Amino acid sequence: MLNRNFLFPSLIILLGAASLFVISQFDKPMFQDASVDAAFFPTVVTIAMMVISSVLVFQHWQKNQRDKKENTQEKEVPLFSKLSVFGVAYLIGYAFLIHLLGYLFASLIAFALYLIYFKVKKPLYYVIAAVFVVSVYYLFGEVFVIALPDGIIL
Fold first, then answer.
1. What are the coiled-coil residue ranges (predicted)?
2. Most exposed residue of 64, 73, 108, 141, measured as fewest CB within 10 angstroms of its CB?
């Protein structure tokens, strides 16, 4: 039976393996004086996602083994929930915004919309989100000397 606790992490592991192959094909820039190349961060993120997904698959397998021993049945959950559909739509919209507005403005808007969607009322969370986005922008641009995407509009 298709179970989202097994299916989606397995899919991430397979996509991660394909991504590692694609990332290995990135050109090595000869003009950039950076401490890391263009493949470093995508590789780190992909490997982290694959490790986390492997842990999730292992946990699901352990839970199934424990449930079999105890003869308990877990309630079947739907493959797609409203929250998962929102998450996919959110990520697609965020990627589109990055293309249009660039990383900085798209991330500020996306973080704010995320907090608004979940009805977060504490202003401190909005401030933390803005500081985080600007810090990442500064870290990549000034410390790692890696340009984050500029939008086609701004």
1. none
2. 73
